């Protein structure tokens, strides 16, 4: 769109736990045939059974995991 923002829809599967995410992206055109899109999303590690047992305490190891996404896109005309 005109403000160079879009969304990517992704399914993340970790340890058999699958979740869908809507990732906000900002993008910049690189010439006539490429774009670079960047975005960030966060998930709870405990929702994916990451850090169980001794590491399950979220006071020791925070629950939020931030993922930074960078996509190089080929534009099709």
Describe it.
By secondary structure, the protein is mostly beta strands. It has one domain (5-74): Lipocalin (Beta Barrel), CATH 2.40.128.110. Helices cover 0% and strands 60% of the residues. Strand 1 and strand 2 form a beta hairpin. The radius of gyration is 16 Å and the shape is elongated. The model has no long low-confidence stretch (mean pLDDT 94).
CATH class assignment: Mainly Beta
Average of pLDDT: 94
Q: What structural class results from the helix and strand content?
A: mainly beta
**Helix proportion:** under 10%
Number of DSSP helical runs:
0
Q: Pick out the low-confidence regions.
A: none
The CATH architecture designation is Beta Barrel
Instruction: Kindly state the number of beta strands.
Output: 4
Overall morphology:
elongated
